[in-house]
Specification:
This protein is of the alpha/beta class and about 425 residues long. The protein has one domain: Alkaline Phosphatase, subunit A. Helices cover about 30% and strands about 15% of the residues. It contains 12 helices and 19 strands. An 8-stranded mixed beta sheet has the order 7-6-8-2-9-14-5-15, covered by helices on one side. The protein has a 3-stranded mixed beta sheet with strand order 1-18-19, with no helix packed on it. It has a two-stranded antiparallel ribbon with strand order 3-4. Strand 18 and strand 19 form a beta hairpin. The longest helix is centred in the C-terminal third of the chain and has 25 residues.
Length: about 425
Amino acid sequence: MRAATGSGERGLRPASKGSRTSNKNDKAIIVIWLWGGPSHMETFDLKPEAPTEYRGEFRPISTRSAGLQICEHLPQLAQLGDQIAILRSLGHDSPGHVSSTHTLLTGYPGEVAEMPPFRSRYPDFWSIVSKTRGERSFGVPVHVALPTLRYNGSAYLNGGLDPFVVSADPNESRFHVPNLALERLSTTRFADRLDLLKRFDGYRHSIDDRASDSMDEFNRKAASLLTRGELRRAFEVEREDHRTRERYGRHAVGQRCLLARRLIEAGVRMVTVDFPHVPGQKAFSWDDHASVWNIFTEMKLRLPVLDQVTSALIEDLRERGLDKEVLVVVMGEMSHTPRLSNFQGQPGREHWGHTMSVLLAGGGLRMGQAVGATNRRGDEAISRPLKPTDLLATLYDYFGISPETAFISSAGRPTRILPDGQPISELI
């Protein structure tokens, strides 16, 4: 066991590879997080032969990969069938959004209260990668969250591992990232302020060494953000070609996906895009309960947006030669029940994690395939059953991190980053 202590316009180019140490350390990831739990029965694992109370309204269509089918409302992704892989047999037993997120992102059962405060008992994937891999390019944040990251936490790891959060909407004409520009502050005055900040070090260290270390890391990153011109330019989405912006879609999620690509080019290692809803729809998540809204009406609004932004991102990365070093993952924390529910004549599906689908693209992994399968009702894995630990082991392997890596927990014991699990061989 490997133990560790808890301590696109012209001129915008990928970060220099000279600042990186190995192929594995060159890797990056973009996660499009479908909070609420996208139903596999309406996205990547449709069951047209299932009984009426299971199959729903939508039909599957063929993709460019033989035998791989996805929803009819994802036609652009279907054209990229040879560039995507779908996990169809992933499952867990956590019932709620918070517990499911904890299970999926830590690999440990989601024993987390569904009401605030949401405190992760184990460090999540983002924290582990930030801790073990660190910066992909010197002075650039390891992880940027657009516009948030739900229920995440570094648990017993040292501080300084939280993402740099950008809550502003890059589709707005006055998109601005606070504290990212020197504005009217001269370089001399900026240096003076940093010097003044250093004078507080002795006082802070005398209070709390751990908190002080976190603040030191935070201040270093803040100073870097203010002084690195290439990273500041990455946030200037308005510099992007008009056709590229339209390709991603002139809405918040589309421009966040475009911004994600720009940030990866600037040297960020991980970008998460929270995609809970699109303009003009009632739903505030992918949580399709019958008692809240009609799942088919809402999916007809969401799926074309998911189709547009995901296909644009996959194609854009490939065209720029980044598809081998950037992995795209599309997932939520759960799925929804294969069997339809009904509330006053309105169809929907309830919480369900036992069978769910995850889409991956790029990263140098094997594409053009579906891994695992569910039965004709979509409620049981009948081949290659996978657990969240298998998905996480695959992502850790992608970054060159051994699943046997351990950190000292708050109880003072070496604790592995995963309790079990193996990288998914079909992808590697």
